[in-house]
Amino acid sequence: MEKTGNESCWQLSESTKGAERLFTGRCRLKVHSVYHQVVNLTDGEEIFSLHPAFPAKSPMSLVLCTAGGSMGDLAPERGMEAVFMDGCMILNGIRIDCRKRTVWDPKLTVRLSSGGITRIVSGIRQILPGLRDRGGFSDSCICPEQREEDFMDRALRSRFRAFLEPCEDAAELAVSLLGMGYGLTPSGDDFLVGLFYVLCIGGYMEHKTAGGIQNAVLGNLSRTGDLSGQFLRHACRGEFGEKLHALAGAVRRGEDGLTELYRIAMTGHSSGVDALNGMAAGWHLMKTEKEKEPQEVVQK
Question: Is the entire prediction scored with pTM above 0.85?
Answer without folding.
Answer: yes
